[in-house]
Amino acid sequence: MITMASSFEPRSSAEIRAHLRARLNAALRRSSAYGGEIVLRVLLDHLTYAEGQEEVWAAELRTLRSRGAFDACGVTGAFRTVLADSCDHGVASLYAESRVIAAG
User: Which of 7, 48, 70, 98 has the fewest Cβ atoms within 10 angstroms?
Assistant: First the structure.
């Protein structure tokens, strides 16, 4: 029989942000082990929401798109238009240079 705990405390916003930052940091260092660009995007989407920076992140994506570094398939798609090989490290590097991450 499975029993549920009778009470629990939700995590604080500071704990949630610290957790997301730690996960993002790990994913940036080994993006292919974590699932590639989609995981980076999901973590960044959640982190920017938790930190109230959705508009900053949206502006960053618009900047990437205007520079030709982001297309319908994300940064990976933009890289694949010029590189034939896997570009996981380049994709992670581009996200790591984001103003959203630098601001944290």
Answer: 7
Nearest Cα to Cα of residue 57 among 24, 9, 19: 24
| Residues 57 and 100 sit within 8 Å (Cβ to Cβ) | yes
Q: What is the CA radius of gyration of the chain?
A: 16
Contacts with 42 (C-beta within 8 Å, 6 or more apart), sequence order:
none
Domain extent listing, the chain: 13-103
Which residue is associated with the tokens 């939700």? 10
Report the C-alpha gap between 46 and 51 in whole angstroms. 9
